[in-house]
Design goal:
Strand content: 15-25%
Order of helices and strands: EEEEHEEHEHHHEHEHEEHEHEEHEH
Structural class: alpha/beta
CATH class of the largest domain: Alpha Beta
Bound molecules: adenosine-5'-triphosphate
CATH topology of the largest domain: Rossmann fold
Number of domains: 2
Low-confidence stretches: 1-47
Distance between the termini: 36 Å
Shape: elongated
CATH architecture of the largest domain: 3-Layer(aba) Sandwich
Number of strands: 15
Length: 360
C-alpha cells in the first residue's frame, strides 16, 4: 500500500518535506517570546509588533503570471487578520511565500520577526498552518493521523500525547469520528482534522487558508467559534477567505486583495466605515419621498414597498436633519429615517469599482 497523503499539497517547502502544508513538526523547541533577530534589510522597518510583515512582496510564476504584485502587508500581534479576495487574487500564493513553500520573485517578508524563507526552520515550529487542505493519510484513522503529527514534533512530550490528541479532536468536534479511517472523511471532516493538527500545540501564529472551505453552515459556525477561542488564548490568527461575511464575523483586521495587489488594509471597523452607508427612509409615501430625496441630491435611489434608500453623497452635520425636515415638510409620513452602515462588500466595490464576484 502506498502511504501517500490523500489530500493536500505536498510541494517541498524550503524548510524540508511537508514543512508547511501541515502544522510544522518542530525541529527546535518553540520559543515563548518572539525572536529579536533582525529582519532582512528590505523588510526592515522600525521595530514593530507585527507578526507578519511584507515589503514589495512579488511572485511571478514561470508562465509569466504575476500572482502577487508589490505587497506591503502588516499583521498586528493579537489580531484575527482576514486576508480577503476573490478567487485567483493571490491569497494562497502569498501564504505559500510567507510559509517558505515558494520563494518570492522580489520583495521580502518577515514572519514572527524573522526573514522568510531563510528562517523557515526556526519560524515554522512557532506556527500552526493549514494550507490547501491537510496532508492526511487515508489508511489511518483520524486519531492516528493526529498521533502521527504529534509524534513528528520533537518538542511534544509522548507521555501527554494522548491528552493533546483527544483535546484537539474534541475542539474540532471530531471525537465521535476519531476511529474512522481518514479516507472515509468528508471534505469538511478532513478540514477539521487538519485544523486539529494545527491546534495540537499552542502556537504564536495560526495560518489558515480558507479554513471553512467545504464545511456546511453549522461547521462554518463551529470553526469561526474555534478561531475566536484560539485568538482569545493569545494566538494571532491569519486566515484567508473569499467570504466577506466570514471576515466581518471573526476578524479584527483585514486586507483586501484584488488581482495580486493589496487594495486596502486596516481594522474591519475602519474598512467598513470607508464604505458609505445608505440613507434609508421608511414610509408608506415612497414615490413622494423619492422625489424629495432626488431634489436633495440623494442618488442611486431604490424604492421598495414601504421604504426608499439611496446614496446621500457627502454629508455635513446638518444634512440629515435638513433632509428629514424636507421630507416631513413635503407631507411624507416618515416612519423611520437613518443611515445604514456600509459593509465590507460596499467598501470593496467602492475601492475597486468591481463586484466581489466569487463562487460561494
Ligand atoms: N503554480 C502556479 N503557476 C502558475 N500560475 C499560478 C500558480 N499558482 C497560482 N497561479 C496563478 O496565480 C494567481 C493567484 O492564484 P492564488 O491561488 O494565489 O489565488 P487565491 O486568491 O488564493 O485564489 P483561490 O481562492 O482560488 O485559491 C491565479 O491567476 C493563479 O492561476
Amino acid at each position: 500500500m502506498t502511504q501517500a497523503p490523500v489530500t493536500g499539497d505536498v510541494t517541498e517547502p524550503a524548510g524540508g518535506p511537508g514543512a508547511a502544508s501541515r502544522p510544522a513538526p518542530a525541529p527546535v523547541p518553540a520559543p515563548t517570546a518572539p525572536s529579536t533577530s533582525t529582519p532582512s534589510a528590505s523588510a526592515s522597518a522600525p521595530a514593530s509588533d507585527d507578526v507578519i510583515r511584507t515589503r514589495g512582496l512579488t511572485k511571478r510564476f514561470r508562465g509569466g503570471q504575476l500572482a502577487v504584485d508589490g505587497l506591503d502587508l502588516a499583521v498586528p500581534r493579537g489580531s484575527v487578520f482576514g486576508f480577503l479576495g476573490p478567487n485567483g487574487s493571490g491569497k494562497t500564493t502569498t501564504i505559500r511565500m510567507l510559509m517558505g513553500l515558494i520563494a518570492p520573485t522580489s520583495g521580502a517578508a518577515t514572519v514572527l520577526g524573522e526573514s522568510m524563507p531563510q528562517s523557515v526552520a526556526t519560524v515554522l515550529p512557532r506556527v500552526g498552518a493549514l494550507i490547501e487542505g491537510p496532508a492526511l493519510y487515508g489508511f489511518l484513522t483520524g486519531r492516528d493521523n493526529l498521533v502521527r503529527f504529534d509524534a513528528a514534533d520533537p518538542t511534544a512530550d509522548p507521555r501527554t500525547r494522548r491528552r493533546r490528541v483527544d483535546t484537539a479532536l474534541d475542539r474540532v468536534g471530531l471525537s465521535a469520528a476519531a476511529g474512522k479511517k481518514a479516507r472515509a472523511y468528508s471534505l469538511g471532516m478532513k478540514q477539521r482534522l487538519g485544523l486539529a493538527s494545527a491546534l495540537l500545540q499552542p502556537r504564536e501564529l495560526l495560518v489558515l487558508d480558507e479554513p471553512t472551505n467545504g464545511l456546511d453552515p453549522q461547521g462554518m459556525r463551529e470553526i469561526r467559534t474555534l478561531v475566536r477561542e484560539v485568538a482569545a488564548e493569545g494566538t494571532t490568527v491569519f486566515l484567508s477567505s473569499h467570504l466577506l461575511d466570514e471576515i466581518e464575523q471573526v476578524c479584527t483586521h483585514a486586507a483586501v486583495m484584488s488581482r495580486g495587489r493589496l487594495v486596502v488594509q486596516g481594522t474591519v471597523a475602519e474598512l467598513a466605515a470607508r464604505a458609505q452607508g445608505r440613507l434609508v427612509v421608511r414610509t408608506p409615501d415612497v414615490a413622494r419621498a423619492a422625489e424629495v430625496l432626488a431634489a436633495h441630491r440623494v442618488t442611486a435611489l431604490v424604492p421598495g414597498e414601504d421604504r426608499v434608500d439611496g446614496e446621500p453623497g457627502v454629508l455635513d452635520e446638518e444634512a440629515l436633519p435638513r433632509l428629514c425636515a424636507a421630507l416631513v415638510g413635503a407631507g411624507v409620513r416618515v416612519h423611520g429615517f437613518g443611515l445604514e452602515r456600509g459593509t465590507l462588500e460596499d467598501a470593496f466595490v467602492a475601492l475597486t469599482g468591481e463586484g466581489f464576484d466569487v463562487a460561494g
